[in-house]
Input
Amino acid sequence: MNGLMTPQLIRISEIYDDGEAARHFTFEPVSGTRHSARPGQFFTLAIPGHGEAAFTYLSLPDAQGRFKALIRRVGALTSALFECGHGDLIGFRGPFGNSWPLEQLLGKRVLIIAGGIGLPPLAAVTDRLSTDGNTPVGLIYGCRSPAEQVLKHERSAWHASMPILETFDRPSNKGQLTGTPLDHTQQMSAKLGGSPEAILSCGPEVMMNAAARHFIKNNLPPEKIWLALERRMHCGVGECGHCYLGSSTVCTDGPIYSWQQLIRLQSQTTA
Amino acid sequence: MRAFLLESLEQLRDHLAAQRPLFTPQFAADSSEPSWLPLSHNTPSVAIEQPLLPAYPAKQFFFPEREILFRFDGTDFKETLPKPAPQILFGVRSCDLCAIAYQDQFFQQDPYYQARRKATLLVGIDCQLPCEGGFCPTVDAGPFVRDGMADLVCHQQGDHWLLITQTSEGEALLEGLDLKAAAEEGITQRRSQEPQVAAQFPSATHIERGIQRINQSQVPAELWQTMGLQCLSCSGCTSLCPTCSCFTSYDRPVDDGFERERCWDSCLYDAFQREASGHNPSAAAGQRVERFWFHKFSDEYIKTFGRYGCTGCGRCEKTCPGVIGVHSVMKRISATP
Ligand code: SF4
Ligand code: SF4
Output
């Protein structure tokens, strides 16, 4: 049995392209060791000779232990991953980090705001909330252009059970919405039957911060706004130091923080 | 806990060295600073009366600058846990012992650190004089060894030594030594003597004030930026600091596959937090200098570790080529209006 830092083997069982330089991967256990995870958690993938990097669960492990990730080609490790094919074995460690606060979301009007590649960390929680039956949930997905959008299949499945607004900086045809996600919150509130009681967001930090401030101004308490942060998560167990955020470690205390927690962490330092 | 009388430190040291490999601060040829070396007969040991801290703290014994984490042999990943032989560190000062306790907690679940640490017994020495640049009393890390921080503690009393056992493993090592039990007064005397030694340290009000300002976020961002410009990103402070623990890792090819090695990293490097996407939350040097000092002096870490991340050893002041070691930084911080 391998410990803390040593990956175990998993198999790539399915791959397809999904958006700009992004690919959809399904992984399955090799030795029958299944694990469970919660929406918002992450794991690491290792490719011998190319190191290791962190990815979010797009879908949580199913009964056979299969789970998915949407991976964009950005660096050395992801380039190596894009060279891998169906059936290839690579390294895995996880799950790591905290998760979206499900207990606090069920039964509430929940607005999910995603930007670009920030949608995958919200996918598992969207799956869960949209099938709950008792939780009015809506998604506003903002991208620079339609080509930047990811998770085509997932979005079409969600469309059946929840309102989704997709907006672009540069739309490719007239019928599409333009502007930032915040330009469309009223329209979404109308669909949800009232203004949101909880916000979940992931995307560029400027977008998330703007969203948080917008809802604070509209009297939503800071502890009802949750953001998923991106940091360089390296070891996943709070040791290597790279993902610090004030006194907290994003890989163990995050990646999900309430706006209230973030304000406190940001106030710890000045530069 | 038991206490014995010891005629000389050498008596204990040589007895221990006969049982296990023993490391102690010594002057290597042509070096004016002692370093941790295996006991040998041709290198002079450090004069015990003058606390001369070894240039490097003891952390390298447990968290070496480089180590292999696992191997990929072409088929599977194999954890490569170290199998260290039992060893003794002799003559560890209180500041460094506090740092070891800090890292023991930080690396609690790290099997590599723990394997090395469990194979090691610590013999501490109380400092009877301030060392140059040290300020251990200000951060509750010395000058005398704190309870439970070492297996054995040596304390000089006139022409003899008090030997205090703090663990059963430490006590077991004494077997075969013919030692007289120490009288109760010796122990009481040691306790009452510490404030007198602490009083001999130079004033550290700049450290106290600096700690306060850091915790009240009262250090102007511009001062951090100025100090950032003076940081050469040499990583001297993070390498020498006994509590610094950041690391990075990479894969290296070996005969039949790859090995993953981890090595010390530094939060003062500009790419420390840079993500694959290019986004860097601490791109400004001032942010990184602030980070380092926040990590050493924020009250937030007391909640977790029961102490600050700084143990007052003063090594960063000696090593920093950019005048942003602990005394310089804290003086500048405490001088801002
Ligand atoms: S800092 Fe204190 S404990 Fe450390 S060597 Fe100096 S006097 Fe001794
Ligand atoms: S911050 Fe400086 S003085 Fe404090 S423990 Fe680290 S090296 Fe020693």
User: Anything to note?
Assistant: The helical segments of chain A are 76-83, 102-105, 120-130, 152-159, 185-192, 205-217, 250-253, 259-266.
